[in-house]
Amino acid sequence: MGERSALLEGLRAYRLIAGMWMRSSMTYRTSFVVTVVGNLLVTGLDFVGILLMFSQVDSLGGWSLPEIAFLYGLSVTAFGIADLVLGSMDVLGARMRDGSFDILLVRPAPVLAQVGADRFALRRLGRITQGAVVLGWALVSVDVDWSAPKALLVPVMVVSGAAIFSAVFVAGAAFQIFAQDAAEVQNAFTYGGTTLLQYPPSVFGKDLVRGVTFMLPLAFVNWVPAAYVLGRPYPIELPRWAVFASPLVAVACCVLAGMAWRVGLRSYRSTGS
Amino acid sequence: MGSGRLYLAVAAGGFRRYATYRAATVAGVFTNTAFGVILVYTYLALWDEKPHLGGYDQAQAVTYVWLGQCLYATLAIQGGGAEKDLMERIRTGEIAVDLYRPADLQLWWLAGDVGRALFQMLGRGVVPFTFGAVFFPMALPTSVTPWAAFVVTLLLAAVVSFALRYLVALSVFWLMDGMGVNQVLMITGIFFSGMVLPLNAFPGLLGDIVRVLPWAAQIQMPADVLMGETDPLGAFAFQAAWAVALLAAGRLLQSAATRRVVVQGG
How far apart, in whole angstroms, are the C-alpha atoms of residue A67 and residue A141? Predict the structure, then answer.
């Protein structure tokens, strides 16, 4: 009962803070439109890179352009949602350094909701839009014999993927409490993670694939289920049910990240200036 | 003589300032290494599919990746060097203090940025590059001459990189806010420097165009000089020409800005 009301309270606080930041960014409409377009372009560069590669070759690691676009669209859309919801968490280290994190601690609202909604930026819709467009193109161009489970897996991947990336953001925030200046390490897992997943697993070394399957289970954002949808072999041996395991993995990641966040918050020491 | 020492002191200050953030440097090394690993695998797959793409073999493509990671922060490819501070100073009006100093504005900021670049290179660039050389096959020269030529191209690359960013930063005199131009700087920097794909692997006309733009002086030229893919003297000339042109443009814009624009204040 208590857990439940805390969750509702957190969501309410998140909505209020995010709404405030939205209104503030809408004050400068031109600037807002420009930054959305800019965001779309910046995040689209990765795909331009892939298109440039495919202007020279017909396949990469044995995968065709529509198949890679499928991976790309899933990875970017899922990451984009997590980035929209929790993307400001990488300024947490700066907040702790200048002491403004303490203000969040004394406010009567869950800290995670406050940190997540901090500087909420609708311009991040640019990334989601761009990812969704590529995903849409991929869905109509891939050569797949669609069945009900395969079709169902597409939205499941987007939602579970967003949850897995969100867990990475929260775990990263917890890590920043211990290593304040080292906020950039988080980028290797967030931005690095989404970049990695844009390419087929067959491109990478088996050890790396094993690492992102079993240790930091980013592979469940798209690689494992997408390999099944596309009828491609996954480079390492996995049980049959693993292709449907993304929601479970997402829940487990979120629980672990939540625990890490609580431990981090409890051991926080203010700079005291 | 005396002014030479002044700029040396400014450069040393730039070096020391960035050297202060040790944890951030270590974090940067980690991130650059992680991205390097991801890129290396994708490039290996690409070159596997099409050997000798852009005249590189696999080892050269791998070398290019790690050089790119090494120079990413060094040359502030996506921004974040001296121009960031300069923009902020123009926005707040503190630039007035800089204009009062008995020193040349452009040289002052160049010196600081070169100091920063040197630290980023040693503190942040060398480790990922060495990691790459240890764990992946790379095409590195064994004689002294290419390495010496490489050092010269790096210096020139740092000047071109600064000159570009200085030019962009001055636009804030008119725009008052650097957010939009910063984004442009980031997009152009990443794409035209060849962080997405080496410029020699760009197809057709697009390839011909990107290889003569100033960004080509940043990663492509040093990489080609290091691996003996181009004549060093030609590379020096290309880089120096862009450095001079961009620095001169910066001077022109600077004088226009300081004559016409009213400094922000309050």
Answer: 8
**Token pair for B121:** 């290179």
Q: Which residue of B has its CA nearest to A47?
A: B196
Structural domains in chain A (count): 1
Domain spans, chain B: 2-260
CA distances from B108 to B12, B218, B257 (A): 12, 21, 17
Residue A271 lies in a domain: no
Q: Rounded distance, CA A153 to CA A161, Å?
A: 11
Instruction: Please tell me whether residue A220 adopts helix, strand or coil conformation.
Output: helix
Task: Please state, in angstroms and rounded to a whole number, the distance separating the CA atoms of residues B57 and B61.
Answer: 6
DSSP A232: P
Mean of the per-residue pLDDT values of chain B: 92
- As a whole number of angstroms, the distance between CA A72 and CA A230 comes to 14
Question: CB under 8 Å to A173, separation ≥6 — which residues?
Answer: A89, A92, A115, A186, A261, A264
Reading the block at residue B113, the tokens are 């940025």
Shortest CA gap B21–chain A (Å):
7
Q: Is A78 left (phi over 0), alpha (psi -120 to 50) or beta?
A: alpha
Alpha-carbon span B203 to B131, nearest angstrom: 30
Cβ <8 Å between B23 and A52: no
Give domain status of residue A212, yes or no: yes
List all residues 6 or more positions away from B240 whose beta carbon is below 8 Å from its beta carbon: B156
Residue appearing with tokens 């051991």? A267
**pLDDT > 60? residue B266:** no
pLDDT in tens, B28-69: 999 999 999 999 999 999 999 999 999 999 999 999 999 999
Q: Contacts from B1-10 at CB under 8 Å and sequence distance 24+? A: B3/B103, B6/B103, B7/B103, B7/B107, B7/B108, B7/B110, B7/B111, B8/B111, B10/B103, B10/B108, B10/B111, B10/B112, B10/B115
Task: Please give the mean pLDDT across all residues of chain A.
Answer: 90
Structure tokens at A117: 């909604």
Q: Using CA atoms, how far apart are residues B123 and B19, in angstroms rounded to an integer?
A: 8
Give the residue from A231, A192, A230, A232 showing the smallest Cα distance to A211.
Answer: A192
Quick one: closest CA in A to B38, which residue? Answer: A196
Among B60, A186, A43, CA closest to B68 = B60
State both tokens at B194. 């060849």
Whether chain A has a CB inside 8 Å of the CB on B187: the answer is yes
pLDDT one-digit tens code per residue, B177-212: 777 788 889 889 999 999 999 999 999 999 999 999
Per the listing, tokens 């902020």 go with B88
Angstrom CA distances, B72 to A42, B100, B120, B124, B243, stand at 16, 33, 9, 9, 19
Q: What is the largest CA-CA distance in chain B?
A: 61
Residue A273 lies in a domain: no
- As a whole number of angstroms, the distance between CA A110 and CA B41 comes to 42
SS3 A63: strand
**Residues of the domain holding A122:** 2-266
B180 touches chain A (CB under 8 A): yes
Crossing angle of helices A65-86 and A29-54, rounded to 10°: 150
Separation between Cα atoms, residue B136 and residue A129, nearest integer Å: 37
